[in-house]
Design brief:
single chain, alpha+beta, Uridine Diphospho-n-acetylenolpyruvylglucosamine Reductase, domain 2
Length: 309
């Protein structure tokens, strides 16, 4: 362990992800303030940012770059990155480390609508912004007013909603270390919001393997570049899970990893699984879907690999 003026840096630390497998970080620090983020960037401008680890797979060899974990504990005094400030009008200011599911629950409790459709999405706010988290019931971009962060040169950046290139599972924010955001929610009926939240969660519980080790949907839903018989027409976005299912890949295994029998776009890990098993399985699923339908699947899950020497 190294104690810096602003940071405590651990050596050879584990990286916790929802897959429950994978390598660690050669250097690791938990950050609570913008000043700590800036100091971390001075130490390693190529640092990697860890939110909730819900959409992440780390290769078994781990990573050499400094990994900074955004502390989600909003109740800790001085933790700027985990704090959430609420206004009855619907204005919300939150640090990038804030836990999205907790924010959703609190918003509904306060009678503020706009993010209840993201129920069941495990993420930090910063991670949700980077990937524009969402699904059939909405996306985080719908409520964003502005995003704040630090660029790799240590400069403060504020981007208004119109300056952010939000798209399907994309934001263009990857080069920025997000430190916080302003959101605009809509005051509404608490009972109706609770009912909506329950409806979304019930649908996900019935269609996703929420009790198993997984990182949610592995692949983005692709846009067809040509007509595919029985699937859809050129320019149509179709379900990756449907393609994987129709290719007969539910239950396909690689070591301790398997394609979920509940939802084909989920890879779950079991006893003895390694990150390499998941990576191999992802590659095999992509190959078989390409062979079957001529469609190339792109990963939604982020994979961290050790940089080449």
């Amino acid at each position: 362990m190294v104690v810096d003026a602003e940071l405590v840096i651990q050596r050879d630390a584990p990286i916790s992800t929802w897959f429950g497998v994978g390598g660690g970080a050669a250097r690791f620090a938990t950050v609570q303030t913008v000043a700590q983020v800036r100091r971390a960037l001075e130490i390693d401008p190529a640092l990697r940012v860890l939110g909730d680890g819900a959409n992440l797979l780390v290769d078994d060899e781990g990573v050499e770059e400094l990994v900074v974990k955004l502390d989600p504990r909003g109740g800790i005094e001085g933790n700027e990155l985990g704090r959430v400030e609420w206004d009855a009008s619907g204005a919300v200011r939150a640090g990038a480390g804030a836990n999205l599911p907790a924010m959703i629950t609190e918003a509904v409790r306060r009678g503020l609508g706009g993010i209840e459709g993201l129920a069941g999405v495990p993420a930090s706010l910063g991670g949700a912004l980077v990937m524009n988290a969402g699904g059939a019931f909405g996306q985080i971009a719908d409520v964003v007013v502005a995003v704040e962060g630090i660029d790799r040169a240590g400069r403060a950046v504020r981007l208004e909603r119109g300056q952010i290139a939000f798209g399907y599972r994309a934001s263009g924010l990857e080069g920025l270390v997000i430190t916080g955001a302003e959101l605009r929610l809509t005051p509404g009926d608490k009972d109706a919001l609770r009912a909506r939240l329950k409806e979304v969660m019930d649908k996900k519980k019935g269609s996703q393997p929420l009790r198993e080790n997984s990182a949610g949907c592995v692949f983005k839903n692709p846009v067809l570049d040509r007509d595919v018989e029985g699937v859809g027409g050129r320019g149509q976005r179709v379900s990756a899970g449907m393609l994987i299912d129709r290719a007969g890949l539910k239950g396909l295994r690689a070591g301790g990893a398997s394609v979920s029998e509940v939802h084909a776009n989920f890879v779950v890990t079991g006893d003895g699984a390694r990150a390499r098993d998941v990576i191999d399985l992802i590659g095999e699923v992509r190959r078989r879907v390409l062979d079957r339908f001529g469609v190339t699947l792109a990963t939604e899950v982020v994979i961290w690999r050790r940089s080449p020497a």
